[in-house]
Inverse folding.
């Protein structure tokens, strides 16, 4: 008995050591980005895995150069990415939660059609609609960072409605009945009674939508007017696409700058992110 | 999945009627956006797959011509095979590793929170940036041999596999951890008392209990594999390519989504009808996989 206990303890220690090694390997690619963002362009390709030497060290030049790299100010990309992500997530949270409440409480034929339409949209790949969607967006002038969130609401509604309906159904009706007896209008009932109860699902949906919209490349690439508006993924793809004179050092500096906010977001909201992912998967 | 008939909700005049009066406020905005962002483009795309067109305003009905052309397009058929191979290999590797990691991390080892944090991290980084990071690393290694990942199909394939595993193992791990934590403690205890060894407990008790998580994860990794686009575009862009005797070319690491994209937005704008037909076929493929998976899940739920 004592022996097996000892063996178990040894096994756990070995697992910890093994996982420490794997974790280091896991962080390796990101560490390489950091290293290479401080190297001169010609050394990124030839000495990818070496620390910067006196000869290859570029100090912060890459970061300064990267700001206007590719003929487009990087700060604009960051700004547009933030605008689209915040507006898109806000629109999705507000309108799909309202719609989900309506769908589960009214439960008419129309509601069912909308609900099954949403479920259906979850299995449709983007390539199916990309050409016609970008034309529709053009016609309706939904091709700026301020209006593209409407497209995100439309194309991303499926999962959000699905998750909200699942949660609303578990809320007992008594509370809303009590609110109605007390003379609350549906609007007041929704915003001061139902919405606060939806908070855990709101957070989960918000996390999933933020992760999607912030990193989305093809939708904004096709919909936005690219000479004027570029999000971070579009900007970075443009750098890679410009053949011949790619400054790898400056590109790595930009990649580093675009990863830092994401890592900070992750480390501060980690608990919610992991919960959100688990919740989204169970429902999906 | 079905909306359950909540008889109290349907009959409650107090709740249902007043809300229904506010339909324009509650549901119309979402429905309007849904029509603009999904329903209309979907139906329009379905219609255009039977037409010859370069812009959406000028079209000419050609029946199933586009579908015949799509299925006879060698690059499309090749990309289907490449994608299917990729999806299956990545499905197996991701799920085996994700389950193993999740299993180890739920055994109360030291530092499991830190490991979980590290393994999930790549999911926060977008596909384009991931592709760019890994192309630097692969080319850094291959640079020692004066070559690049863009020159060899096999390297491209395994490069995509490594990238995808690196990204998705952490995601699936989270789902498996949630499943493993829900396995009843007393069941594991009972197995121990009955003298089951570690492997027996794993296969006879733990795995049957996390079946729902396994279905979800295999489903997600399979559809993710088939739909992969950003990583493919950023890491290899479909390169290298081979040229056929008849002058057409096949990009040998091009997956389905990228093939459809290139047919749409390539130099030959006359092939947009074919591209839309390919997109419909792609949709049917992905939807069929999803529905097959859902029915399989339901069957298991009935058994439980």
């Amino acid at each position: 008995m004592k022996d097996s206990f000892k063996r178990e303890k040894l096994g756990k220690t070995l697992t910890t050591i093994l996982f420490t090694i794997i974790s280091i390997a896991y962080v390796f690619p990101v560490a390489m980005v950091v290293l290479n963002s401080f190297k001169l362009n010609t050394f990124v390709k030839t000495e990818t895995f070496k620390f910067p030497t006196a000869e290859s060290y570029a100090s912060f030049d890459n970061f300064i150069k990267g700001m206007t790299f590719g003929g487009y100010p990087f700060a604009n990309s960051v700004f547009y990415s933030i605008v689209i992500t915040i507006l898109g997530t806000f629109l999705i949270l507000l309108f799909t939660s309202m719609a989900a409440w309506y769908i589960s409480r009214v439960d008419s034929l129309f509601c069912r059609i909308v609900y099954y339409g949403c479920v259906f949209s979850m299995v449709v790949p983007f390539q199916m609609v990309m050409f016609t969607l970008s034309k529709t967006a053009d016609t309706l002038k939904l091709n700026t960072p301020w209006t593209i969130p409407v497209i995100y609401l439309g194309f991303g509604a499926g999962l959000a409605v699905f998750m909200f309906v699942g949660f609303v159904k578990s809320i007992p009706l008594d509370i809303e009945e009590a609110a109605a007896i007390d003379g609350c209008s549906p609007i007041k009932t929704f915003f001061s009674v139902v919405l606060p109860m939806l908070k855990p699902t709101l957070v989960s949906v918000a996390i999933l939508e933020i992760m999607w919209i912030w990193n989305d490349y093809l939708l904004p690439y096709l919909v936005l007017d690219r000479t004027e508006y570029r999000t971070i993924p579009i900007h970075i793809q443009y750098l890679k696409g410009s053949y011949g004179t790619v400054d790898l050092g400056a590109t790595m500096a930009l990649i580093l700058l675009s990863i830092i906010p994401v890592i900070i977001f992750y480390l501060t909201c980690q608990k919610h992110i992991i919960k959100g992912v688990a919740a989204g998967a169970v429902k999906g | 999945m079905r909306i359950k008939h909540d008889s109290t909700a349907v009959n409650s005049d107090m709740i249902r009627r007043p809300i229904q009066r506010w339909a324009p406020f509650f549901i119309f905005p979402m429905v309007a956006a849904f029509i603009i962002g999904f329903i209309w483009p979907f139906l329009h795309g379905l219609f255009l797959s039977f037409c010859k067109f370069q812009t959406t305003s000028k079209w000419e009905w050609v029946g199933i011509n586009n579908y015949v052309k799509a299925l006879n397009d060698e690059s499309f058929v090749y990309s289907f095979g490449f994608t299917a191979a990729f999806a299956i290999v990545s499905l197996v590797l991701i799920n085996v590793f994700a389950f193993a990691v999740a299993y180890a991390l739920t055994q109360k080892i030291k530092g499991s929170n830190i490991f979980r944090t590290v393994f999930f991290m790549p999911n926060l980084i977008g596909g384009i940036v991931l592709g760019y990071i890994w192309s630097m690393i692969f080319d850094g290694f291959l640079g020692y041999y004066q070559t690049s990942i863009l020159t060899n199909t096999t390297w491209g394939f395994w490069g995509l596999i490594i990238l995808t595993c690196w990204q998705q193992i952490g995601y699936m791990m989270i789902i498996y951890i949630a499943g493993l934590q829900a396995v009843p403690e007393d069941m594991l205890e009972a197995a121990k008392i009955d003298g089951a060894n570690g492997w027996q407990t794993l296969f006879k008790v733990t795995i049957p209990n996390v079946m729902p998580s396994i279905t979800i994860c295999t489903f997600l990794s399979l559809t993710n594999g088939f739909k992969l686009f950003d990583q493919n575009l950023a890491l290899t862009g479909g390169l290298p390519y081979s040229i056929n005797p008849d002058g057409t070319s096949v990009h040998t690491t091009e997956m389905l989504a990228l093939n459809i994209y290139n047919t749409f937005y390539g130099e030959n704008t006359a092939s947009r009808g074919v591209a839309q037909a390919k997109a419909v076929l792609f949709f049917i493929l992905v939807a069929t996989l999803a529905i097959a998976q859902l029915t399989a899940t339901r069957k298991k739920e009935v058994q439980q």
